[in-house]
UniProtKB/TrEMBL annotation:
Residues 54-161 form the TonB-dependent receptor plug domain. It is found in: Cell outer membrane. The keyword Repressor does not apply. Its main location: membrane. Residues 1-21 form the signal peptide. This is TonB-dependent receptor. It comes from Hymenobacter negativus. Keywords: Cell outer membrane, Ion transport, Iron, Iron transport, Membrane, Receptor, Signal, TonB box, Transmembrane, Transmembrane beta strand, Transport. Residues 268-687 form the TonB-dependent receptor-like beta-barrel domain. It holds the Pfam family Plug.
Amino acid sequence: MKTVLLAGVALCALAAAPAWAQVPASGTVPTDTAIARRILTPGAIVTATRATDKTGTTYQNVSRDQLQARNFGQDIPYLLDQTPSVVTTSDAGTGVGYTGIRIRGTDGTRINVTLNGVPVNEAESHGVFFVDLPDLASSTQSIQVQRGAGPSTNGAGAFGASLNVETLGLRSKAYAEVNNSAGSFGTWKSTIMAGTGLINGHFTVDARASRVQSEGYIDRGWSRLKSLYLAGTYSDEKTLLRALVLTGYETTYQSWYGLADSLLHKNRRYNEAGTDAGQHQPGYKNQTDNYQQDYYQFLISRQLTSTLNLSVTPFWTRGGGYYEEYKANQGFAKYGIGGPAFQPNASGSLDTLTSTDVIRRRWLKTDLYGATYALQLRPTTGRLTEATLGGAFVGYRGQHFDELTWAQRGLNIPETGTRYYDEPNAHKTDFNVYARANVSLTDALGIFGDLQYRTVRYELFAPDGRPDGAKSQQAINFRFLNPKAGLTYQLTGSTQLYASFAVAQREPTRTDYTDTPAERRPTAETLFNYEAGLRRTAGKVQASLNGYYMRYRNQLVLSGHLDDVGNPIHTNVADSYRAGVEGQLAWQPVSKFTLTATATASRNKINNYTDYLADYDQGGEKATYFKQTNIAFSPDLTAAYTAEVEPVAGLKLAALARYAGRQYLDNTSTASRSIAPYYVQDVRLRYLWHPAAFAGLREVEMALLVNNVFATEYVNNGYTYGYVYGGQTQYFNYVYPQAKTNFLASLNLRF
């Protein structure tokens, strides 16, 4: 397939965090060394999109060591499943391939993701596809998970959470690593990475190559993933320059169809994809998704004075990809095949044919380009502790077109294929600017303020309101003003009270326009986010307790309809909310034992909701009104824990578990259309050995991860649709079964 390039640069630093959540990465230049004092390191540049203990918001920093302990080849969402309010999903059932994450019940299209401060979410769908970033964890220094609206960030507004990913920091010494993992369902990860360390006290080069593959738990749910990472840095006492290229390539067999729930206890690994010619025929072997993503990043940072720093990051993304599928009995007219075709029958006469089997590819090509900037002031005296002026300009072009590569009859297709649908290019411009400041009112009381202005212009091909449902190129404009404020009160040196209020606004996605008639066109949605909590960040017992209330105006939720390829159609609801309490605990009674645990109890409701169901008997739709109902995919309870013990030096044994309460597939709170609660238990063994000097070998790590040790049969995602026909209301549920007991083992050599 062709190339997709998506980009961003802006070097992040690990913001202040609870001590139990912040472990320095091995080999990173410490800030108190002589070298670190002579040069400007990435750690000296705190990204403007990160929260700190002065912002009064809810967040957790996940360190490199924590990520590497979980990194056996599964995608980023699965490495974050121990953080509060998280539910993960996997189409193929193994955590490799197409995976997803929900935080506080909100899906990936509402979770703002940045890579080194630059937006990652696709400009039209707002989605983030971690399958296009295989083994990103191997090149990650830290991830900050912000829950709620959080501080101002680049890209679409955060409507439940933000993930701020920071790539590898500066390492003073040369290094090399060879990491290999293998396990159930043909899963295999191979990673080679190396770095020069500091050359002449100023230059470093870091590189990584990875390959991840899996056959998947679901039949034919295989993945073939590749990734490259290359970064070069120049740094002195006042200047930091970094160029970075990150490339990801994926080919996966489609497993996004899900499994009809009637088959769940008969053949839970069945895959409907590729069976359009008939369920008793072999699945079409090339029913695949193909995509490549290349991130080109360049950071320019200059220490203007001892207290003032300017960072500018130009970026560019370009590329495309397609998914291929076999479709049976397709009408000629849909593909521009003119007139009927004829074929002889048994009696010698001719049959008239108006349909054919085809193989088609649906393409997306994109360009994403622009720049982010941040001017940061950190005074050394006075009540103002930090102030930032930042923002970004992002431009986007999206090309949507479809082509035939084969037709059974009626059309001769060249080897290069023939286009049967070519949509005018979509264009989007996104400009935002924000100002932020932290002020210490007293030695204990601090105040935080943040004001963002964001303007969006979106040009796309969508229904224009004509009776025949015709589409035309249209322009839609948005202007958003998003204020945020917070208070922090330091009770003791390690105990803090905090509270914040934030407004976030978000434009609809492409399909919210293209799949909805013009008279029901959605509008932008608004979130009013209240957070308050108490956290203790030192001592043998460290804990936090956070309460949140997220009030939505015009939230886009599932309407009950699906588009022509099975994607859900959304509708605005005037009044909805999410409210909950999140608890987090880290306990280390002795140096050899650690327990961390999280739990969230919540209510997620829509007031005055009307659900619509197609009525093929009477025509039109059947409406059902609910005074109050649950928001789909929003469990009332989630929990997770990790207990790790080190019985002998270097050997660590851990038990890990996660729980999710009932999740409804639609907004009707109907148990028969829901995902049952599930509890999944994993165990992990890690042994770290420091051999005597041998060919430069510094460290050997052997690890084993056994997932789902109790062989729980569970699903973590699904969808539903229904209609009225023949006097009966019929619903069809599809779910995504997850693997039973399976394992991954790894051997990591570090030089």
